[in-house]
């Protein structure tokens, strides 16, 4: 157990819909990262927050948005969903901007299926 | 641009040794990481190298050569449970992690 909690674990929805994925980082971790992993693909970095502020942005679509709240939990909002958005969405956390050694602790992921 | 290359897939035999290579070209270097990811599961941290040389941790070892932009992960005494994808990631000068696409390791009895 990494200490990172993601909900929901599984989500099935239709094209055009909007969903919200939630992540609670490990206790004491200030950084939250979101990654997308499509079937048999590598990890695609979406966005990072540090202590409530956006720290870095990757290949995140305009239809996607995220935020980190004062209690440090984070939400990833995906709107106008398309079939290609079906993927595993991972949240990860670290102590600092990158952590002492940069080690990230990953949640179990939210599997999104768009029909 | 920034780039990390690793083989897409490798096959090895139970009990044997396998070496997974990773080459990188990044804007600066602040460390290289190896993660293991079983299918459908979260990646888990294996090793971190920031200085040249070999880091050994049980059956797993990781090597780094910064001058060559090269690392490898060495897995000894392979077990069936080692069947997984192995992800190489480099921390660049902005302390951002650049990820390779991963190497799928298949272990055969």
Explain what this protein looks like in three dimensions:
The complex is a heterodimer of chains A (115) and B (109). In chain A, 38% of the residues are buried. Chain A is an all-beta fold. The mean pLDDT of chain A is 92. In chain A, strands 2, 4, 5, 6, 9, 10 and 11 form a 7-stranded mixed beta sheet that branches. Chain A is globular. In chain A, 0% of the residues lie in helices and 50% in strands. Chain B is mainly β and 109 residues long. Chain B is built from no helices and 11 strands. Chain B has strands at 3-5, 9-13, 18-25, 32-37, 44-49, 53-57, 60-65, 70-75, 84-91, 97-99, 103-108. In chain B, the strands form 2 sheets. In chain B, strands 2, 4, 5, 9, 10 and 11 form a 6-stranded mixed beta sheet that branches. In chain B, strand 4 and strand 5 form a beta hairpin. The model of chain B has no long low-confidence stretch (mean pLDDT 95). The A-B interface holds A 2, 41-43, 45, 48, 56, 88, 90, 97-98, 101-109, 111 and B 30-31, 33, 40-45, 48, 87, 91, 94-97, 99-102.
Keywords:
heterodimer, A: 115 residues, mainly beta, seven-stranded mixed sheet, four-stranded antiparallel sheet, 11 strands, B: 109 residues
Question: What is shown here, in short?
Answer:
Chain A has 115 residues and is mostly beta strands.
Q: Identify the biggest protein-protein contact and residues per side.
A: A-B, 21 and 20 residues
The tally of helices of chain B reads 0
Radius of gyration of chain B: 13 Å
Radius of gyration of chain A, CA atoms, in whole angstroms: 13 Å
Please state the average pLDDT score of chain B.
Answer: 95
SSE string of chain A, helix = H, strand = E? Answer: EEEEEEEEEEE
| Unreliable residue runs of chain B | none
Main β-sheet of chain B, in a few words? 6 strands, mixed
Runs of chain A in which pLDDT lies below 50 for 5 or more consecutive residues are none
C-alpha geometry of chain B: globular
Instruction: Give the distance, in angstroms, between the N- and C-terminal Cα atoms of chain A.
Output: 31 Å
What is the tally of helical segments of chain A? 0
SS-based class of chain B? mainly beta
**Coarse structural class of chain A:** mainly beta
